[in-house]
Amino acid sequence: MIYAVICIVALVVSALTLFSGFGLGTLLMPAFAIFFPVEIAVGATAIVHLANNIFKLVLVGRKADIKIVLRFAIPASIMAVIGALLLNYFANVQPVTEYTLAGRLFTITAVKLVIAVLIAAFAILELSPRLEKLSFDVKYIPLGGALSGFFGGLSGQQGALRSAFLIRAGLNKEVFIGTSVVSAVIVDVSRLTVYGITFFSKNFAVLKNQVGVGLIVAAILVAFLGSFIGSRLVKKITMRTIQRIVGVLLLLLSIALGIGVV
Q1: SS3 87
Q2: 36, 167 contact by CB (below 8 A)
Q3: Over 136-205, what HEC string results?
């Protein structure tokens, strides 16, 4: 069941991320969070995200605009480190409260509350028609990199912001995709470095004991397949219906995290 959920999500979402506003982490991290502690879910998603982006790099990376990459990715990588360190801080904060319902004990932690709020915020981005075409002037690209990197390091939710700030850079579709992929790789390397030094290495046994290593490998492989399929799509997919479904699912998950059910 765990393999089915994670692999299906990785396959479908990785195929769509080449063309959509949301990223692989938007759905894959919540899928991991159903089965693992939130901070482990973010770290595991980052591994799959980086591997998938390296694969995309081979497919479309040569199209990237290096000047835009530098303006976006340098502040993004710095803020990704800060976001990742903040995630580690919240992961070590004592539980906020606990309660019993129907004979089960539920725990509400600081890291769950933070991730729940962020997931809900990005879900609203997916659902709001006014925010569907959100974009910013090209002069704000460094700011966009900083914000995208920070939230990427903290929760893995970065694709929508990255698209919103890069979409006005005057890039054609291929260059836009290549620039986004190269930027994402730089952010992933930065945040994974922090994850590895902090909570991820200490909690590696959690993944190992719950078939997490094999799960991550499987997710990486099917994400590769999804990216390959996505790169072969000729026409841009109409994403609005998918975005609505994504938004509703993310809102439900944020509620579940916020009340300690997940």
Answers
A1: helix
A2: no
A3: CCHHHHHHHHHHHHHHHHHHCCCHHHHHHHHCCCCCCHHHHHHHHHHHHHHHHHHHHHHHHHHHHHHCHH
pLDDT band at 6; cut points 50, 70, 90: confident
Give residue-wise pLDDT tens across range 238-254: 556 656 766 777 788 78
Mean pLDDT, rounded, for 78-85: 95
The C-alpha atoms of residue 35 and residue 59 are separated, in whole angstroms, by 32
Provide CB contacts within 8 A for 37, sequence distance 6+: 91, 203, 206
Of residues 201 and 117, more confidence is placed in 117
DSSP 107-119: EE-HHHHHHHHHH
Return d(Cα 207, Cα 253) in angstroms, integer.
21
